[in-house]
């Protein structure tokens, strides 16, 4: 099933490939929580955190190498074996800030694979189960750079623009199921 590679974590200037964020889908680390996921005192099924926690599937990332499509697909298969996925949050992102003409091809490929392609593989794997269940939520964490550019971030900006571009047709394709697919575009975050 899914192999984990701790060597892909951040090593100074090297990009890391483990998923980031409050929710990623890794069956081996499933933990059951109370239904008030955002700690506002209200268990609201329309709040994505509350809904995920009420379903008992609040999941944490491990050392999944998102550069490797086989690992993302294996992860999706592991999740599917547990039952249909209700909520998918694609929240991985790396960047390497240099002028385009100085961008190493390997870094370009890593950024596109982690920031964009991994979301494609995860959605492709999750949508059939959501369709079968007749409900699902997909949230893609894009970026302010999905909307505007910054110098020295060509690969990151391209990938995050692509993530918004990927979100739109998926939203249209799944709207009648009813599955929603949305992108959020946060500003700068200290990580």
How much of the sequence lies in strands comes to: 5-15%
Alpha-carbon Rg, integer: 16 Å
Sheet of most strands: 3 strands, parallel
- According to DSSP, the number of beta strands is 3
Total of DSSP H or I helical runs spanning 4+ residues: 4
What percentage of residues falls in helices of 4 or more residues? 25-40%
The assigned structural class equals: mainly alpha
Please report the distance between the alpha carbons of the first and last residues: 30 Å
List the strand order in the largest sheet: 1-2-3
Mean pLDDT: 74
Outline: globular
- Given as residue ranges, the uncertain stretches (5+ residues, pLDDT < 50) are 1-37, 56-61
Helix and strand run: HHEHEHE
Descriptive notes:
This protein has 191 residues and is mainly α. The chain has helices spanning 48-54, 69-82, 105-133, 154-174, and strands at residues 87-90, 136-141, 179-184. It has a 3-stranded parallel beta sheet, with helices on both faces. Helix 4 links the parallel strand 2 and strand 3. Helix 2 runs parallel beside helix 3 (105-133). It starts with 47 loop residues before the first helix and ends in a 7-residue tail after the last strand.
